[in-house]
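Posted in: Protein Modeling Q&A

I'm a second-year student putting together a small comparison for a lab meeting, and my supervisor asked me to include a predicted structure for Site-specific integrase. I've never done this before, so apologies if this is the wrong subforum. The sequence is pasted below exactly as I got it from our records. If anyone can share the structure token output, I'd also love a short note on what stands out.
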Amino acid sequence: MAKIKITKRSVETLKVTSKDYIAFDTELPGFGVRVMPSGKRFFLVQYRRHGRTRRVMIGQFGVVTAELARREATIKLGSVRGANGDPAALRDAERQSLTMKQLGERFLTQYVPARCKPSTEAEYRRAVELFLDPFFAKQHVRSVTTADVAELHGSLSHIPYQANRTLGVLSKMMNLAETWGIRDKHTNPCEDVERYPERKRERFLSPKELKRLGHALAAAEAEQTETKYAVAAFRILLLTGCRLSEIQKLEWRYVDLEQKELRLPDSKTGAKTVHLGDAAVALLKALPHLTGNPYVIVGKKKKTHLTDLQHPWRRIRKAAKLNDVRIHDLRHTFASGGLLVGEGLAMIGKLLGHTQVQTTARYAHLASDPVKQAATKISDRLAAALFDTIDNPSNNEPQQSHALVSDVEDRSEAA
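Accepted answer (user: helix_wrangler)
Welcome! Here is the predicted structure, written out as tokens:
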């Protein structure tokens, strides 16, 4: 254990080693700074109480200044001299008495805003406020067991997807509780609770369904049952493969029709460039710019985007007799369309903005459709010749069948 006069400069010059160590202050006994192998430094106080050495963290250097840490250490060490002064015991008691509701509040105020996108933050808040707070109420964090978590998960069995999302949020909160010293390490009660099976939907529109959708969109536009911006949004979603929020909140400053690109500053996977086909460019060129409104898909209020596309979509899909099709399935249709015209998974993933190959791989089975079509054509021709030979035997037919097979083989070799 080193000894220094703890100041900003002296703390900065402390050497980082392969093991953590504590350097104590030469002027205030018990006041120290812990240097971690990672280079991080933490202020602390150390004292003895009832024959035991106790330590209480004050804060990380940089976030907490040396001067502020010294004042806090003076207060804590001064309290040790009192009859009931034990900062570590007070800390432990406070942690053990923390309720799930209080943990949820800390999670939503300290952790989520700094690390999550607004849409994710809204999902986390929904899980905490609608499902976790009502279930656990004032139960202490340390008392939550695997049985409690299983009961919560089971109570949401009628909404299995939400049950799994809520379980995921709770698991994250419990991991943070361990990091914050509220629960013991490796005691996450969510780990042994089995999630409900989830089946990823891969619904995409067939050519006939696309035709019905096209007619429904044209009718909605002509009859003005939906705004031209809502109709344009669905067309653009289909022709770009973008996510709903990417088009719904798209601003004209991110649109470059000369380069045929959308340069999105933020998306689910971060900043990305969306490459536009000619049809998408034509749609955007035809869409009016509303003076004073920065958005492409204009809302009903001034300077806003259209906030509700779900209700227009439900009306349009009903008219097209596509009641099971979600807006997100337009993105799936874009992906399947690329595979059906011969584009590889890597190219489709790039167009969709996927960061992981596994995400695009869910469409891999669609790439076999052109091969299946070729197999069907060949087998149909062979079957026609074969059954014709059986039903109407003649001297010429074996030669016809032989010629057909030779033709198929020649075509296969050429391919």
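A couple of things worth pointing out for your meeting: Confidence is low (pLDDT under 50) at residues 393-415. The chain is about 50% helix and 10% strand.
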